[in-house]
Design brief:
There is one protein chain. The chain has two domains: 188 residues, Fructose-1,6-Bisphosphatase, subunit A, domain 1 (Fructose-1,6-Bisphosphatase, Chain A, domain 1, 2-Layer Sandwich), CATH 3.30.540; 129 residues, D-Maltodextrin-Binding Protein, domain 2 (3-Layer(aba) Sandwich). The chain has seven helices and 15 strands. Strands 4-3-5-6-7-8-9-10 form an eight-stranded mixed sheet, with helices on both faces. Strands 12-11-13-15-14 form a five-stranded mixed sheet, with helices on both faces. Helix 4 crosses helix 7. It is globular and about 65 Å long. Bound molecules: 2,5-anhydro-1,6-di-O-phosphono-D-glucitol and manganese (II) ion (2 copies). Its cofactor is Mg(2+). It catalyses: beta-D-fructose 1,6-bisphosphate + H2O = beta-D-fructose 6-phosphate + phosphate. It comes from Pseudoduganella namucuonensis.
Length: 333
């Protein structure tokens, strides 16, 4: 089998479809290289002294794990000097990170969740990195948070790395979704799945059921109907999976279908759901739509949401098209 590397894929995409200019290619390659470095740390575990928590909390008041901070540093350092970026933003940093003046500035902006699935780090379960790429607004001076306030539909690229039994990179630049597997000996990303497609129908759902008593009526109704199985209104048995790493749950859905949900609930109205629009919902929505799936906040398409703050949270329903349509329609009734 002829092996196609990430670099070759990116160069040929540009040649054939003109969708990946050189600066964007450099950006994607630098992010991919960072993910390799993160994968290396993740793989070391206790031997690399990377497990466990720090004293610090991030801006959302969550305890930071060592690997949250290590991964954030790896991405920042790798992406600062290449000249492809104007600024970065991260789930783990309160404010945006403009490119320091000693380096040239580029026209892209990078957002990331450096380490997704933090609660799984110390128990050796799949975790990941999620990233999203926006264009800097025309004529932008010193970058500000306002420059990042762009709807998900403006993303020019998005992807995630999943650190599991294999390390994989899943990428979209708006022309389908492709998956690369890390060849650990060679240190290279090899194209292993082209044009991933999420089946429109599914019998598998993913939600944290322990929050059931807090759900709003449409979510409660939808899940009750799934749980009722073949004797209920859906007339079929559904299966459930919940990894508690969004990357791992989305990766399963990309491969065999399913619906993933993290709804808002009645506990705290100032916190609409748990997941973050800019670092989690938007990039995953872009990938899922590019694979033929759908992604809504229950009412509207996630990628149509006009963001109002960097760390904004949003309810998420994504995956197989037909199921996302059902649960979204219940929110409209
Ligand atoms: P992060 O580790 O980046 O904070 O994200 C964790 C997210 C997401 O990956 C996962 O789907 C969800 O939190 C799990 O939440 P519960 O612990 O409530 O199940
Ligand atoms: Mn996350
Ligand atoms: Mn995270």
């Amino acid at each position: 089998m002829k092996r196609i590397s990430l670099t070759q894929y990116l160069v040929e995409e540009q040649r054939l479809h003109n969708t990946i200019p050189a600066e964007l290619r450099l950006l994607i390659e630098v992010v991919a290289r960072s993910c390799k470095t993160i994968a290396h740390s993740v793989g070391k575990g206790a031997l690399g002294d990377v497990l466990g928590a720090l004293e610090s909390e991030n801006v959302q008041g969550e305890v930071q794990k060592k690997l949250d901070v290590i991964s954030n540093e790896i991405l920042l350092e790798a992406n600062e000097w290449g000249g492809h970026l104007a600024a970065m933003a991260s789930e783990e940093m309160e404010s945006i990170h403009p490119i320091p003046n000693r380096y040239p500035k580029g026209e892209y902006m990078l957002l990331f969740d450096p380490l997704d699935g933090s609660s799984n780090i110390d128990v050796n379960v799949s975790i990941g990195t999620i990233f999203s790429v926006l264009k800097a607004p025309e004529g932008m001076g010193q970058p500000t948070e306002a420059d990042f306030m762009q709807a998900g539909s403006k993303q020019v690229a998005a992807g995630y790395a999943v650190y599991g039994p294999q390390t994989m990179l899943v990428l979209t630049t708006g022309r389908g979704v492709n998956c690369f597997t890390l060849d650990r000996e060679m240190g290279s990303w090899v194209l292993t799945q082209r044009d991933m497609q999420i089946p429109a129908k599914t019998k598998e759902f993913a939600i944290n059921m322990s929050n059931a008593r807090h759900w709003h009526a449409p979510v409660k109704r939808y899940i009750d109907e799934l749980l009722a199985g073949d004797s209920g209104p859906r007339g079929t048995n559904f299966n459930m999976r919940w990894v508690a790493s969004m990357v791992a749950d989305v990766h399963r859905i990309l491969n065999r279908g399913g619906i993933f949900m993290y709804p808002a609930d009645m506990r705290d109205t100032s916190m609409p759901g748990k997941l973050r629009l800019m670092y989690e919902a938007n990039p995953m929505a872009f990938i899922v739509e590019q694979a033929g799936g759908a992604a809504t906040d229950g009412k509207q398409r996630i990628m149509d949401i006009e963001p109002h703050k960097l760390h904004q949270r949003v309810p998420v329903f994504l995956g197989s098209r037909d199921e996302v349509a059902v649960v979204t329609s219940y929110h409209h009734e």
